[in-house]
Amino acid sequence: MGGSLRDRLRARQRPSVPCRLQVDDTAAAQRAAEEAVVALRLAQARGAAPEEVTAAREAVTAAQAALEACYATVTVTALPPGDLEALVAAHPPREGSDDREWNTDTFPRALLLECLPGDMTGEEWAEFLATSCSDGEVAALEQAALAVNVRAPDGTLPKGWIETIS
User: Fold this and answer.
1) Which of 95, 119, 149, 161 could bond 157 through an S-S bridge, CB–CB 3.0 to 4.6 Å?
2) CB atoms within 10 A of CB 66
3) What confidence tens digit (pLDDT) does each residue in 3-13 have?
4) 20 has a pLDDT exceeding 70
């Protein structure tokens, strides 16, 4: 955590938030993980041999890894402030609507597409969102993009940050 303030600030990355998306069916993997946990508990409860308990623990670890593999993490990263301002300007509030800061119909999706990782193009992300996601998943991703871009830093100190010397 050393280095000058200048070095630390220059090395800082823009805020980002991880979002998990289910990419494979989890039913079988969830069932296998639950069964592995039950088998481990039974082995422990009946005082099974250490190698049997170890094998059961390894089965739990493997089943949990298989369940985790059913998900992918997408990182939503904040835009530089100037880019965010330009995007807001490109999606002005509509007259006669409840819009305040931006067009609530077009801005959230446009913002999300700008904040998603570059492994896929904007068109690929748009197609993925339109064909492979539920409305709830899209809404959650759009909310994440909004939150990571408009969040204000928390000025409070975390619990336990400093000790009171008495």
Assistant:
1) 161
2) 17
3) 899 999 899 99
4) yes
